[in-house]
Amino acid sequence: MSDWFTIEKIDDVTYAISEYGHWEKVHSYLLIGKECALLIDTGLGIGNIKKEVDLLTDLPIKVVTTHVHWDHIGGHNLFSDISVHQEDAKWLRNGIPMPIDVIRKNVICQPFIKEAPKEFDINKYNIYTGNPTKELIDNDIIDIGSREIRVIHTPGHSPGHICLWEEEKGYLYTGDLIYIGTLYAFYPSTDPIQFKHSVDKISQLNNIKNILPAHNDLNVSINMVQKVKEAFNSIEKNNLLRQGSGVFKFEDFNIHL
Ligand SMILES: [Zn+2]
Ligand SMILES: [Zn+2]
């Protein structure tokens, strides 16, 4: 088997499944419950993520989508139970509003750091479309048996972007809302004002113990939420909270509007 994926244990029943071989350094997460397992995103679609998941659990798998961008739905075709926020559901049904040749260029725009699995062929790389099993709204609870995960609608990076909050453990899966690197709200389908409101919204959560991002370094300090919140406040104060206003550099991260 290819070593495209890196499995890291967050705790005995929670794994990060990472693709460090790709410049985007994407993380998906597997949460093992008593009745089923929850896979948060399915990665880039360069390797077969289902084979990795099958090595970690025999339970039925539910997939939940942080948002419908190509780098987080790459393995959706390998699963049958897929949830997505209702505001991103149309992109899952009808496809992402981005031509496939542009996406293919993005996938390979920087050389891979690890060898891609043999079966990977960029000319056959396609974007999943299909009807979701369930459309989510803010505050929905995903119950996988002795583990409850709350949906927090955090639009801005995409209309139906969600964070997932597991209050009992203090785990916040932040998707593309918070990670170390460049946070993006410059595409036509993004909304910098909503992005700011979403950061404000998650900053209200009490007792976050672990931030689990969808990209880059897994070690994100808890106070990063506060730092990103302050960064957006300063951008807003300077009347620059709008698309096309540029790249703003901060200590551990940038914001590209
Ligand atoms: Zn994204
Ligand atoms: Zn992403």
Number of strands: 15
Strand content: 25-35%
Alpha plus pi helix count? 5
Heterogens: zinc ion
Mean pLDDT: 96
Uncertain ranges: none
Structural class: alpha/beta
Could you please describe the fold and organization of this structure?
With 257 residues, the protein is α/β, with parallel strands linked by helices. Helices cover 18% and strands 26% of the residues. It has 5 helices and 15 strands. The longest helix has 14 residues, at 224-237. The termini are far apart. The mean pLDDT is 96. It binds zinc ion (2 copies). One zinc ion is lined by residues 69, 71-72, 176, 214-215. The site of one zinc ion has 6 residues, from loops.
Q: What topology emerges from the helices and strands here?
A:
Blueprint: E1 6-11, E2 14-19, E3 26-32, E4 37-40, H1 49-56, E5 61-64, E6 82-85, H2 89-94, H3 100-107, E7 134-136, E8 141-143, E9 148-153, E10 162-166, E11 171-175, E12 181-184, H4 192-202, E13 210-213, H5 224-237, E14 247-249, E15 253-256
Parallel strand pairs: 4-5, 5-6, 6-7, 11-13, 12-15
Antiparallel strand pairs: 1-2, 2-3, 3-4, 8-9, 9-10, 10-11, 14-15
List keywords for this structure.
single chain; 257 residues; alpha/beta; 7-stranded mixed sheet; 5-stranded mixed sheet; 5 helices; globular; binds zinc ion
Short description:
With 257 residues, this protein is an alpha/beta fold. It has helices spanning 49-56, 89-94, 100-107, 192-202, 224-237, and strands spanning 6-11, 14-19, 26-32, 37-40, 61-64, 82-85, 134-136, 141-143, 148-153, 162-166, 171-175, 181-184, 210-213, 247-249, 253-256.
